[in-house]
Design goal:
With 310 residues, this protein is α/β, with parallel strands linked by helices. The protein contains eight helices and nine strands. The strands form two sheets. It has a six-stranded mixed beta sheet, sandwiched between helices. The structure holds zinc ion.
Length: 310
């Protein structure tokens, strides 16, 4: 387990520190008997010795659980250090791991990986105490050789492993968890943020943006400022985007603090409905516009609640 630099963002140096022997897979060729140990299979899927595609990958079956445990601890301590270094947030907000909230279906194996609470509580948490839910989808993102761990063999997109939110399966799981949370009463005030350490695949970036436009998820972030180390000059704009509508690469703890401030110091509300413009118009006409902006907004949201196609 990493002992240092919990206030730093994810990097190949940090990843190097958490590598243990059990995280390496044995990759062997059935054709020629070639064997190597690396974290992931190379991107070509071919034996580097004879070119055969008959490669067998054998990895320790607890590897993903160990990596998830390490990366969630990393994110927990990073987020705690951001909150505790902020004069405004310190002592008011608390980052907790494996948060249980039965009202939001966060229990058993589907607890919130991380959550921000406005009280220093443990055990089952009432939705009103939860200020943000984080789904952590972090991985080992680089490929590493067992023999020489001085630098990575390949960047996040240069091997067959498809780590973090570069894996569509992880994206779909995060969307599913957000949808279940959003389907529960009491989640309307709680932003849902997906935390990764790689960018999403190019073909999925518009879907990621769509989940944010629809309000299902509020943000997708990557905690890795520099995901390109091995092939740093190969189309960096595409392989290392700073942001899209829904995704942001975090480059400093100050950027993370800005996001937390935005999430925690405002009264957010989820709105989602299939509506007729004329019905919305009628609702607006019916509101008492002499009241405060906040009261008008509350009255509007209440009127929206029953809208559906009959
Ligand atoms: Zn071979």
């Amino acid at each position: 387990m990493i002992q240092t630099r919990y206030d730093a963002l994810w990097s190949h140096e940090i990843e190097q520190e958490i590598l243990t022997d059990t995280m390496f897979a044995t990759i062997s060729c059935r054709q020629c008997g070639y064997v190597e140990k690396s974290v992931f299979r190379g991107s070509s899927g071919k034996c580097p010795s004879c070119g055969s595609r008959r490669l067998v990958v054998s990895e320790f079956n607890q590897r993903n659980a160990i990596v998830a445990d390490n990366t969630e601890k990393f994110a927990l301590q990073l987020f705690q250090s951001v909150v505790n270094n902020s004069d405004i947030l310190k002592g008011k907000f608390f980052i907790k791991r494996n948060v249980e909230c039965p009202q939001l279906e966060l229990r058993g194996r589907t607890k919130a990986d991380l959550a921000i609470l406005d009280d220093n509580l443990d055990g089952p948490i009432h939705p009103e105490k939860i200020k943000c839910i984080f789904e952590v989808k972090m991985s080992l993102i680089w490929n590493w050789s067992y023999e020489d761990r001085s630098k990575p063999l390949a960047d996040y997109d240069g091997h067959a492993g498809r780590p973090s939110i570069y894996r569509t399966d992880s994206i779909l799981k995060a969307i599913g968890k957000a949808a279940i949370t959003r389907a529960c009463r009491g989640s309307e005030r709680i932003p849902f943020v997906v935390v990764g350490n790689a960018p999403p695949p190019v073909a999925y970036r518009d879907k990621i943006d769509g989940t944010v436009r629809s309000g299902l998820i509020q943000k997708w972030i990557s905690l890795t400022p520099t995901p390109l180390v091995v092939e740093s000059t190969k189309s960096p704009g595409n392989r290392n985007p700073k942001e899209t509508f829904g995704f942001s690469r975090i480059d400093s703890t100050a950027e993370l603090e800005d996001i937390f401030m935005n999430i925690l110091t405002k009264d957010w509300r989820y709105v989602g409905a299939m509506v007729e413009p004329k019905e919305i118009g009628a609702i607006i006409r019916g509101l008492d516009l002499s009241r405060t902006d906040e009261e008008i907004g509350e009255a509007f949201l209440t009127s929206m609640e029953g809208i559906k196609i009959d």
